[in-house]
Specification:
Distance between the termini: 58 Å
Number of helices: 8
Number of strands: 18
CATH superfamily of the largest domain: HUPs
Strand content: 25-35%
Strand order of the largest sheet: 13-16-15-14-17-18
CATH class of the largest domain: Alpha Beta
Number of domains: 3
Shape: globular
Helix content: 10-25%
Oligomer: single chain
């Protein structure tokens, strides 16, 4: 009997070819589209802004078209309330705390490989599948599934999926994980999906139409956009005024009127509406504290060496992992090479070559400053 798999159909190229490949491979394929939260305060009828970067009405119609063409069942899952609670509200709450969140990590953790897996069980399916450029392979020697970088090193999305545990990997397929984006496009053109091969990719955070998050934050956290002080961290001296604390993230240059020497944001404090600044060298760190640790297999042992990436597509550096003896559940990484602008709230991901070991959230701790 064929294994049943739920494929997340976004209306885009990668998920379309994922469903196509799985049907070719003999799976019983069911197409699924996620109905997610749209910002009710977003501007309307602006020609230069899309309805949403993904999961729009147009995307729903495209996903339905794919299912019809492949002759597979099609369902729409209403995840709007859960998406708002676990992704959007988390995004806003973290900004209010002076953090820089990563909503794509939380969406994958809670929605795509959280509630989607729950639906898999409800519908009696064996797997869920998405169009992520990552690989999930069984290792006979370790008797574990391994989450590996995708065949397309430019499109690799492992940074966003470090929260996949063994139980989740056991039920997850990534049909295009071994392919490159050009190969996927060629496959689409050769199999009657030309319009998807030409479709522009959605980029950035999906739940607001603008290219940056500032307008979204202005709509939902207007109190973060009132004048406040730039203060030098070392001296606590007021250097000037800013137009809103939520306009700044760690590492960016703070252009302070009347201040000749360049200053850089070291941290933000929305509670006092203060942007703390200093010199570029003040941003260098040789130690990172991580919370919400998650492992794809066995956790790193105390004193283990691993590669660490603090940004999607960023270069990895070598570090030594320790469990914090003073605080349970917190990891401490000592770096061989200093890193600049570690943003509390962002994710740090451990690698061993192409294999993802796990990761965590950079902690907002005074120990970082």
């Amino acid at each position: 009997m064929a294994k049943r798999v739920l494929v997340g159909l976004s209306g885009g190229l990668d998920s379309t070819i994922s469903a196509f490949l799985l049907k070719q491979q003999g799976y019983e394929v069911i197409g699924v589209h996620f109905q997610l939260w749209h910002d009710p305060k977003a501007p309307e009828n602006q020609k230069d802004l899309p309805e949403n970067k993904c999961c729009s009405v147009r995307d729903l119609m495209l996903a339905r078209t794919v299912a019809k063409k492949l002759d597979i069942p099609f369902f729409v899952f209403d995840f709007r309330e859960r998406f708002f609670r676990d992704v959007v509200q988390d995004f806003l709450t973290r900004f209010e705390k002076g953090l820089t969140p990563n909503p794509c990590v939380e969406c994958n953790r809670n929605i795509k490989f959280g509630y989607f897996l729950e639906k898999m069980t409800e519908l009696g399916a064996d797997f869920v599948a998405t169009g992520h450029y990552v690989r999930n392979e069984w290792n006979d020697e370790t008797q574990e599934f391994e989450l590996l970088r995708g065949g397309d090193h430019i499109k690799d999305q492992t940074y966003f999926l470090y929260s996949l545990t063994q139980e989740k990997l056991r039920h997850t397929l990534f049909p295009v994980g071994n392919l490159t984006k050009p190969e996927v496009r060629e496959m689409a053109i050769g199999n009657g999906f030309e319009e998807f091969a030409k479709k522009r990719e959605s980029q950035g955070v999906c739940f607001f139409p603008e290219k940056t998050y500032h307008e979204f934050l202005k709509r939902h956290l207007p109190h973060g956009f009132i004048k406040g002080d730039f203060k030098e961290l070392k001296t606590e001296k007021v250097l000037g005024q800013h137009e809103g604390v939520l306009l700044f993230t760690v590492g960016q240059r703070a252009r302070i009127p009347g201040c000749i020497a360049p200053k850089y944001v070291l941290k933000t404090d929305p509670q006092t509406n203060t942007v703390w600044v200093g010199e570029n060298e003040d941003l260098l760190r040789t130690q990172i504290f991580l919370e919400n640790l998650s492992w794809t297999g066995k956790p790193l042992e105390d004193g283990s060496e691993a590669e660490l990436s603090i940004r999607h597509g960023g270069k990895s550096v070598t570090g030594v992992f320790h469990n914090n003896p003073l605080e349970k559940g917190i990891g401490v990484i000592s770096l061989s090479t200093p890193l600049r602008a570690l943003s509390p709230g962002q994710s740090a991901v451990f690698y061993s070559g192409k294999k993802v070991l796990g990761g965590g959230i950079i902690q907002n701790s005074s120990s970082l400053l």
